[in-house]
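Review box. Two proteins, two foldings.
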Amino acid sequence: MTTPRAFSLTEAEHRRIERIDQLVLLGAAGVGELMADLNDASWTVRRAAVAGLAALGDDAVDPLCRWLSRDRSSERAISAVVDALSASVGASATPVVLGLFDDPRPAVVSDAAPGVFDAILCRNVLIYFQDERILRVIDRLVEHLAPDGLIAVGASESLLRFGTRLMCEERGSSFFYRCVR
């Protein structure tokens, strides 16, 4: 067993985190600088920026979504932007984030998780979408599914009513779908 060590920050990290706290107090005026910190080399600084942007809610959602659609300068920043959006709370957060789904170059699916997968977990996500969007999500997921792969959805998210090319397998309280090719 290793001896636990105290977690310490450099002076520069302390200063940057203090600056992040000041930027949050500025509200919408601080969003641009906070977003720049999402690509910081320090994980601790990035986490502080994520928390700050999430706390700003609606003020940060539009700029974060625009960044995902246009810039995407690094995988580290993409991950931080997605974290900030996931934690954002505000009246406009959900519709604006859902608008990312219509982006012809989707950041979250194509950039953050390129490739083909044996299993895709999409549990308790589809219940928030209208039927048309569910079908588009499923089509995108199938594009990234290995030939014998499975998509897992929650018990309340049966896809059978859509007549898709997916075959359902129920296991316990979960539904798994396999693509019939």
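Next protein.
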Amino acid sequence: MKLSDTKQNIMAAARLLAQTRGYNGFSFQDIAEAVGIRTASVHHHYPTKAALCLLMMQQYSSSFFERLYSGTDDSRKGMLSHFIAQYRACLADNRVCLGVMFASDIADLSPEIADEVHKFLKANQAWLVRAFRSSGSQLSAAQAHLFFSSVQGAMLTAWAIQDHGIFEEATNAALMMFQRPL
């Protein structure tokens, strides 16, 4: 089922707002203004903010992992670089990964959205563990979490102070640390 243009525009505007302001930083009024429609039209397509954000998180996660699994370099450095590139792409657009941004608002999310965020974060870590093990490493889940946290923390810090060099420095250091056999 293809979304209508209006519905797609609403989702795109909401996603931009969510990735730059967080869950609590936007309203249906903000979306309506961004799209150039009435607030009632947003409600027509998405009855609640929770319904909109649940679908948004599901779509984001699906798209993220489709890109992540499309990597073709099976070397440890190649896989880690590809992983970092997914987060760099958000930052290049002056956005934060939706899963990370929603994680910062986890206490305010509906249980359904929070569950999707948990799945997204756990799937990232699981991908890293599988990627390391397929390259012959015995990377532990804790080490995967450390790498994952380093990438996400670097993205958040770089975005918050508008210095993308921080992301590059931190992820290059993490890449150097984890590309060697452990």
